Amino acid sequence: MNPFAEAMRLLTSGDPYVMAVVVRSLAISGSALLLATAIGLPIGALIGLSRFRLRVPVIAIVNTGLALPPVVAGLAVYLLLSRSGPLGNLELLFTPVAMGIAQVALAGPYIAAVTLAALESLPTDIGLQARGLGATRLQAAVLQLREVRTSLVAAIAAGFGAIISEVGAAMIVGGNILGETRVMTTTIVLETRRGNFGVAIALGVVLLAIALFVNVVLAGLGTRARRPVMS
After folding, report:
1. Residue 121 — φ and ψ, nearest 5°?
2. 89-147, pLDDT tens digit by residue?
3. Is the dihedral of CA 190, 192, 196, 199 positive or negative?
4. Total Cβ atoms within 10 A of residue 197
5. Residue 214's pLDDT band (boundaries 50, 70, 90)?
6. CB-based contact 139:130 (threshold 8 Å)
7. What contacts 149, CB < 8 A, 6 or more positions away?
8. What is the DSSP string of 99-134?
């Protein structure tokens, strides 16, 4: 059968194998994105809103995370969770949790760096004016974050893009185990090597559709964030 026709058949019939891989991918990447946002956004905001002695080196370290190769992140998590590693007794290697940790390590720097860059682009007098009008330090920080809320949405989108199409770290720490850690990207690699192009194409279509859907939703949120609040 033509691989494109086979891919269409798998998608329209709701093939259990394909659907299971898709659901598992969404569960792992979705959880990782939420955790990466909870970690990366506050870190980026804290660095962007603070002034301290080692600020420049810290910013350089955060920005270096943007160039972190997925396979290096996977290797670091593998060494951390392996039997001889410091967390080996938790027996998390080759589990969805290990894959989630690796994806957090990839997405977190993107979210922190974009948040930091957005706050860096703000005029420095916004916070000072708020404090001069009687706002507390926390209220001034919230005001500054509101000013860059569109960029915060972009930060989350960048984090999502860093993990949804990632394959190297997922293979290293997940092992591509059937029914356990096999996700869309690793399955595409496996089924392509096997010559099952219909499955690979079907999952590729789903992966692109999910990426498009999430980015459309985030773009919509960004558009709403740019609208002025009506009094």
Report:
1. -80, -10
2. 999 999 999 999 999 999 999 999 999 998 888 776 676 666 666 677 777 777 888 88
3. positive
4. 17
5. confident
6. yes
7. 225
8. HHHHHHHHHHHHHHHHHHHHHHTS-THHHHHHHHTT
Q: Which amino acid is at 181?
A: T
Please tell me whether the overall predicted TM-score, pTM, comes out greater than 0.85 for this model.
Answer: yes
From residue 225, alpha-carbon distances to 18, 40, 148, 183 in Å are: 36, 20, 9, 33
Q: Which amino acid is it at 190?
A: L
By the 8 A CB rule, do 78 and 84 touch?
Answer: no
* Residue entry with tokens 């692109």: 208
Neighbours of 97 (CB within 10 A): 18
Query: Where are the domains positioned within the chain?
Result: 19-181
To the nearest 10°, the Cα dihedral for 140, 145, 148, 151? Answer: 160
Interaxial angle between packed helices 16-49 and 184-194, expressed in degrees from 0 to 180 and rounded to the nearest 10? 140
Q: Which residue's structure tokens are 């591509």?
A: 176
Q: Tokens in use for 191?
A: 């089924």
Class of the CATH domain delimited by 19-181: mainly alpha
How far is CA 134 from its chain centroid? 37
Alpha-carbon gap, residue 4 to 198, rounded angstroms: 6
The identity of residue 63, as a single letter, is: N
